């Protein structure tokens, strides 16, 4: 038996319960992975509260990214063997000491990247990859706005967008978070608790506004985000930490300059094995080059997952958080 966090009822952090779970043996095309580090993301909160229902209902194990060591391989698995370091992203199930996972969902961790870094950057980093390279292809000279710049995705985004030659504007909620974002590639950071971010974007860009806005906050920032876009700009909604965007008249996109709006997800962009490999390679390459640094700012024991969620929701965390089994 091994330990895993289980959710039997939707609710607050207290519903995260550590239990004995049999991870099972790998079947054909599968591997058994012993986790050494597990990434924590805001989407885990959405699953815990029921905002994003688990596909197979209750109970379930949350978590979408992890790194570890292959313990056993099933039949038909090529290119992986016991002892290999691997990382992966799935929809659910990583808050566990061990887990059986499809071999075609894992990627080897290259030398120079630690297990903790890999566990904390796969979901976040590949999210940044598709946002910057595929949803709206950022190029030198573009100006982009990113909300929640001091979060785990934000700190990767700022460095990578800077590396691509964009002018990167961020928003954050305290002087400490503003400073952290500036240290991770953002050229301008607006403290949204002290300043109106729409007015600040207009000032920073001298009225030119932004080519794209990346918004994982949702309800609280939607209207202002549209006002930060130039004509034919792109609004990208990829989360809703403040609540879902309310229904709106699509005609508003015409009124504000024939804007584009999209709601992408990582799993839509990385559906095939080829897409996964290309996304992971781009991420590992930019980290190994030194252009993007992955720093683990918070570590919790797996048994303390509830505290990790409480701190995340209270906005007490910055950057990357991992659970250690």
From TrEMBL:
GO MF annotation terms: quinone reductase (NADPH) activity
Pfam family, one: ADH_N
Keywords: NADP, Oxidoreductase
Enzyme Commission no: 1.6.5.5
InterPro entries linked to this entry: ADH-like_C, ADH-like_N, ER, GroES-like_sf, NAD(P)-bd_dom_sf, QOR-like
Domain Enoyl reductase (ER) intervals: 11-323
Coiled coil (UniProt feature): none
Enzyme class: oxidoreductase
SUPFAM superfamilies xrefs: GroES-like (SSF50129), NAD(P)-binding Rossmann-fold domains (SSF51735)
Protein's UniProt name: NADPH2:quinone reductase
């Amino acid at each position: 038996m091994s330990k895993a966090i289980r959710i039997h009822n939707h609710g607050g952090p207290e519903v995260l319960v550590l239990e004995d779970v049999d991870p099972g043996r790998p079947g054909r095309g599968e591997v058994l992975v012993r986790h050494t580090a597990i990434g924590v993301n805001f989407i885990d909160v959405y699953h815990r509260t029921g905002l994003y229902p688990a596909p197979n209902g209750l109970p379930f194990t949350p978590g979408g990214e992890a790194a570890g060591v292959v313990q056993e391989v099933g039949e038909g698995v090529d290119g992986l063997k016991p002892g290999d370091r691997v990382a992966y992203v799935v929809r659910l199930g990583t808050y566990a000491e061990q887990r059986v996972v499809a071999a075609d969902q894992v990627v080897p961790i290259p030398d120079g990247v630690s297990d903790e870094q890999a566990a904390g950057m796969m979901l976040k980093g590949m999210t940044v990859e598709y946002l910057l390279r595929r949803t709206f292809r950022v190029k030198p000279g573009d100006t982009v706005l990113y909300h929640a710049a001091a979060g785990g995705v934000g700190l990767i985004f700022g460095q990578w967008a800077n590396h691509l030659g964009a002018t990167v504007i961020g928003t954050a909620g305290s002087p400490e978070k503003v400073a952290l974002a500036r240290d991770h590639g953002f050229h301008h950071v607006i403290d949204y608790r002290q300043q109106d971010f729409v007015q600040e974007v207009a000032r920073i860009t001298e009225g030119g506004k932004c080519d794209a806005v990346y918004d994982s906050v949702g309800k609280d920032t939607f209207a202002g985000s549209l006002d930060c876009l130039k004509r034919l700009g792109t609004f990208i909604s990829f989360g809703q930490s403040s609540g879902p965007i309310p229904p709106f008249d699509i005609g508003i996109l015409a009124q504000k300059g024939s804007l584009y709006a999209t709601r992408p997800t990582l799993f839509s962009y990385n559906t095939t094995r080829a897409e996964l490999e290309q996304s992971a390679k781009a991420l590992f390459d930019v980290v190994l080059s030194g252009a993007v640094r992955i720093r683990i700012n918070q570590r919790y024991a797996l048994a303390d997952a509830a505290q990790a969620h409480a701190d995340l929701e209270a906005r007490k965390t910055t950057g990357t958080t991992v659970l250690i089994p």
